[in-house]
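User: Need the bound-state model for zinc ion:
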Amino acid sequence: MWVAKIKNGSVIDHITRGHALDIVKILGITGRAEGVVTVAMNVPSKKLGVKDMVKVEGRELSAKEVDKIALLAPQASINIVRDYKVVEKQHVKLPSVISGIARCANPSCISNSNEPVEARFYVESEDPLYMRCHYCSYIMEKKDVLKQF
Ligand code: CTP
Ligand code: ZN
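Assistant: Bound-state model below.
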């Protein structure tokens, strides 16, 4: 209703207002390589009052990208569209333990050394995001995550 339907690609819907550009950033969308990208902000929504939305024509998001979105927009839903139809709808869910998505922002954390140690965090709060490093107890926030993408 607010923005044109897409033919093939991904619609990230029900993004908490003000977070659309963060999603654009973590997905690495520059507008120079993708097809049509639509960013809508403050769209009226029954569920949320207002919401943001990002539509990416010609790109189906991977599971890892969906996990990244969950970190920044835990209420979002992701729709995969093929030939104008929604063929898959995923309500993102932030797991309580996060690994493989973000690095620890503490430079002296063992997970940032040459040791073969993978970063791991425990989510203490979803929104605002607080996640605690398993190794050094550093509390990561959204801004720490955004700096990495
Ligand atoms: N959409 C789109 N292009 C399509 C099909 C759907 O951009 N070809 C968008 C719709 O505008 C909507 C989202 O994808 O924002 C989900 O579509 P749909 O499941 O049809 O809408 P709702 O039933 O309203 O979704 P929900 O229940 O998740 O609110
Ligand atoms: Zn750490």
